[in-house]
């Protein structure tokens, strides 16, 4: 049997009154007991403090201890004290993604098919509006399917209230704003913005669609590469190689931004450009942080000439 003292990290926890406590894990040693076992015992004592809400750390290190690590590998010896922090209500990343992407899938059809309700009159949709509708719907349907059947998440949950921030990004900017813009009378087949311009040229629209399809397929390929690196139910990380990864660490982000760039150029919509800028900034920040983590974790093994997100640039 192995014992660990669990104390609050900072002020007393409302859901864990009675800390510190001594957690005992029977029939295991520091070589076989895991951080997850400690969390399970804490949850047994305080049922509302389920494992996903818990962050355990060493007294002299604020970094979270990984559930899958044994106590020995985590640097915890028999009888040692670890600190417990309540992360608050949690929700699974998979659920968050499903909710994020369902917004545009509902919003775009409502605005596209109910122009009298939205604009006060009927709208004869131009070809560019029709292409945009198809591309947006296919993109988010793909994202939903990837969430259900492809993605394997390194972190199981996130704070519950983050769902409103994350969903707002997609529901408002790529949902309401984009749809309201490109299905409006300003984009109708008789609009001066469309008539006798390249936006009603079938060759231009087909070229845009072809580049968009290339970006979407390439993005899916990158997601499959990342999936195949991580066995189900693990947080294993390996260096990705293959299509796209020879140039950048996050080709999935690059190809997604390429797809949205096509939509922005094709429509000329301010809403499309605003969403592109927001998504580009957000994903670039994520990519830079994750790229640094790759280099820190794998050191000299990580390809030194590999850029972060934009080939040959960053």
From TrEMBL:
Species lineage: Eukaryota, Fungi, Dikarya, Basidiomycota, Agaricomycotina
Domain (Ubiquitin-like): residue spans on this chain: 32-84
Keyword list, A-Z: Endoplasmic reticulum, Fatty acid biosynthesis, Fatty acid metabolism, Lipid biosynthesis, Lipid metabolism, Membrane, NADP, Oxidoreductase, Transmembrane, Transmembrane helix
Annotated Gene Ontology cellular component terms: endoplasmic reticulum membrane
Enzyme Commission number(s) of this protein: 1.3.1.93
Protein name: very-long-chain enoyl-CoA reductase
GO biological process, one term: very long-chain fatty acid biosynthetic process
Enzyme class (EC, first level): oxidoreductase
InterPro entries tied to this protein: 3-oxo-5_a-steroid_4-DH_C, SRD5A/TECR, TECR-like_N, Ubiquitin-like_dom, Ubiquitin-like_domsf
Molecular-function GO term, any one: very-long-chain enoyl-CoA reductase activity
Pfam family, one: Steroid_dh
Keyword Transmembrane recorded: yes
Subcellular location: Endoplasmic reticulum membrane
Transmembrane segments: 168-184, 204-222, 243-264, 270-288
Family: Belongs to the steroid 5-alpha reductase family.
Membrane topology: Multi-pass membrane protein
Pathway: Lipid metabolism; fatty acid biosynthesis
Record carries keyword Membrane: yes
């Amino acid at each position: 049997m192995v014992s660990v003292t669990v104390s609050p990290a900072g002020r007393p926890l409302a859901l864990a009154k009675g800390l510190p406590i001594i957690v005992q894990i029977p029939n295991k040693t520091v070589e076989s007991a895991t951080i997850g076992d400690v969390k399970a015992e804490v949850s047994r004592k305080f049922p509302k403090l389920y494992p996903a809400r818990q962050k355990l750390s060493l007294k002299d290190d604020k970094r979270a201890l990984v559930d899958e690590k044994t106590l020995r590998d985590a640097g915890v010896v028999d009888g040692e004290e670890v600190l417990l922090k309540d992360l608050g209500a949690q929700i699974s990343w998979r659920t968050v993604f499903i909710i994020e992407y369902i917004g545009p899938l509902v919003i775009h059809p409502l605005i596209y098919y109910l122009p009298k309700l939205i604009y006060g009159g009927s709208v004869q949709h131009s070809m560019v509006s029709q292409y945009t509708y198809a591309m947006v719907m296919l993109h988010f349907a793909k994202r939903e399917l990837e969430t259900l059947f492809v993605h394997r998440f390194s972190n199981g949950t996130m704070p519950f209230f983050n769902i409103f921030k994350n969903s707002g990004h997609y529901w408002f900017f790529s949902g309401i704003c984009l749809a309201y813009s490109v299905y409006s009378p300003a984009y109708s087949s008789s609009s001066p913005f469309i008539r006798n311009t390249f936006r009603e040229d079938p060759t231009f629209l087909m070229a845009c669609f072809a580049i968009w399809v290339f970006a979407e397929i390439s993005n899916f390929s990158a997601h499959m590469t990342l999936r195949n690196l991580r066995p189900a139910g693990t947080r294993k990380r390996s260096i990705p190689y293959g299509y796209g990864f020879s140039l950048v660490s996050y080709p999935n982000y690059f190809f997604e931004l390429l797809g949205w760039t096509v939509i922005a150029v094709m429509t000329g919509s301010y809403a499309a450009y605003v969403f592109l800028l927001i998504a580009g900034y957000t994903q670039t920040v994520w990519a830079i942080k994750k790229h640094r983590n790759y280099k820190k974790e794998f050191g000299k093994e990580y390809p030194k000439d590999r850029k972060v997100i934009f080939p040959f640039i960053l």
